[in-house]
Amino acid sequence: MKVAFFSSEVYPFAKTGGLADVSGTLPLALAKAGCEVKIFMPLYKNITPEKIYPDFASTSLGKNVEIIFIKNDDYFMRDNLYGTPAGDYPDNLERFSFFCRKSLEVLKKLDFSPDIMHANDWQASLINIYLKIIYKNDKFYKRAKTVLTIHNLAYQGLFEKEKYPITGIDSKYFSSDFLEFFGKINLLKGGIIFSDMVNTVSPTYAKQIQTPDYGCGLDGVLREKREYLCGILNAIDYNVWSPAKDKYIYKTYTSSSLDDKYVNKAKLQKEMGLKVSKKKFLLGMVTRLAEQKGVDILSKAMNSILEKFQVVILGTGDERYHRILKQKAAKHKDSFSLNLKFDEVLAHKIYASSDAFLMPSRFEPCGLSQLISYKYGTVPVVQHTGGLVDTVTDYEEKGGGFVFKEYSSKALAGTIDRAGALYGCSQEWTDLMKKGMRYSFSWTKTAKEYIRMYDKCRSMP
Fold first, then answer.
1. Would you say 42 and 76 are in contact if contact means Cβ atoms under 8 Å apart?
2. In this predicted model, what pLDDT tens digit does every residue of 154-186 receive, in sequence order?
3. Which residues of 390-400 are buried (b: 16+ CB within 10 A; e: fewer)?
4. Is the pTM of the predicted complex or chain greater than 0.85?
5. Would you call 56 helix, strand, or coil by DSSP?
6. With bands split at pLDDT 50, 70 and 90, how would you rate the model's confidence at 415?
7. d(CA 172, CA 178)
8. DSSP state of 249
9. CA atoms within 13 A on the CB side of 398
10. Sheet strands side by side (includes 158-160)
């Protein structure tokens, strides 16, 4: 099966979040399962391809996988992928409509006629829209079926209606039945409507987004698509995320050498300026600092948490949460380390060194952090939503983590207290760590589910 895979970010070439991790690992797993895959992404700054052509470049990622970089220096040779701290780039519609149009042209140049066109999020949604409108009579794409993966429904690609001509799509499609959304262009809405199959990154989130509470205004569109909508749980790459061979952590360890995990803990405490103590319960968090990630309820609970425990946070996000957390860090220097940046090495150290990992998300399409933390013997503390429902069961229900169901600072603080109390019972905590380390969320299983979805798609008339 030939698969063309389209994403605005792909690890290790460009990354702002989980989309890049999925886009960098799923295609490789598909190839191992027998697919021939070409990945398409923009040629951003600081990427060095193996081969360079006039309007694209390429790099081989192993047998049956090639990544194609779409060139346009005016659009893509910038310091950031989507915008600056001040906001999104004002020409993002131009940038990603160009990416989609050019990708379709390059596919024909490469004479790669795919069975499946797999677009990811709003940035690539125009791929599937163009195929059903502009390329509907093109023989080259006659057999191609289209899939759209929604990694986070909250990001939809909204643009002012005055920009609609930039898309190159007939104006009759700017209506509530297609791309119009409360007077604006909505690329993700169009992608949902014009794709043969739509999936998101966990079964629970696939159900939640069909409700008004989680549908971000598109729940009606998704309910209409429900026969062709499914949830496939994300996975992680254990070649990257494994404490037994992680080159970024202070000292590697396994479930049979957990004393070395505490070597990591002591070194992180020292590096972060915290009191070095094995007895101190250390909570880690690597996240975007936004309300979606539960930073609002965490901020309110921080004083009571920091009176008893230690916290290390890595990430950037909303300026108001930067300010609030800076104040907390200044007040609790011995127990709170705030790191307002993106740092891949420090992220690995936090996963390896923490006793528990915080994910108090208001909503969570899948979440990768809880899957990673399990592997490192770091117990997840999560809110009962989205993919966290599918992956974390409470310790008291014989699961591998701690779960709270009421979205509040009180419920969060109480659940952290429960976890901290069990940490004081060393053997029970060790057993819980080892249980999580035995869990497996590999791409091999997930790739098979994607291939089943592809096969269903190909069987459609």
1. yes
2. 999 999 999 999 999 999 999 999 999 999 999
3. bbbebbeeebb
4. yes
5. strand
6. very high
7. 9
8. S
9. 0
10. 158-160, 184-186, 180-181
pLDDT, position 461: 84
* 71 secondary structure, DSSP code: P
DSSP string, 41-52: EE--TT---SEE
Transcribe 120-156 into DSSP letters.
EHHHHHHHHHHHHHTSTT-GGGTT-EEEEEES-TT--
On whether the CB atoms of residues 149 and 127 are closer than 8 A, the answer is no
Handedness of CA 381, 386, 392, 396 (dihedral sign): positive
Tokens read off for 236 = 């992680």
Residue 60 tokens read as 């081989």
18: which strand partners?
Answer: none
DSSP code, position 162: G
Extract the tokens encoding 88. 């999104």
Round to whole Å and give the CA distance between 443 and 420.
32
Q: Tokens representing 31?
A: 């190839």
Which among 153, 199, 164 has a CA at the least distance from the CA of 385?
153
Domains of the chain, each with CATH number or no CATH = 2-235+443-458 (3.40.50.2000), 259-438 (3.40.50.2000)
**Cβ atoms within 10 Å of 433's Cβ, excluding its own:** 20
Q: Which amino acid is at 107?
A: L
Closest CA to 117 of 87, 86, 94, 138: 138
User: What is the Cα–Cα distance from 175 to 182, expressed in whole angstroms?
Assistant: 10
> Scanning the structure block, which residue is given the tokens 């950031």?
80
Q: How far apart are CA 398 and CA 396, in angstroms?
A: 5
What residues pair up with 443 in beta bridges, in sequence order?
none
Tokens of 145: 């079926």
Number of CB atoms found within 10 A of residue 437's CB: 22
Residue 227 CA from chain centroid, whole number:
25
Task: Give pLDDT tens digits for 64-121.
Answer: 899 999 999 999 999 999 998 778 999 999 999 999 999 999 999 999 999 999 999 9
- Cα separation, 210 vs 223, in Å, equals 5
Closest by CA position to 186, among listed 208, 217, 151, 224 = 217
| CB contact at 8 A, 328 and 303 | yes
Q: What is the H or E stretch that residue 443 is in?
A: helix 443-458
Alpha-carbon distance 114 to 61, whole Å?
Answer: 18
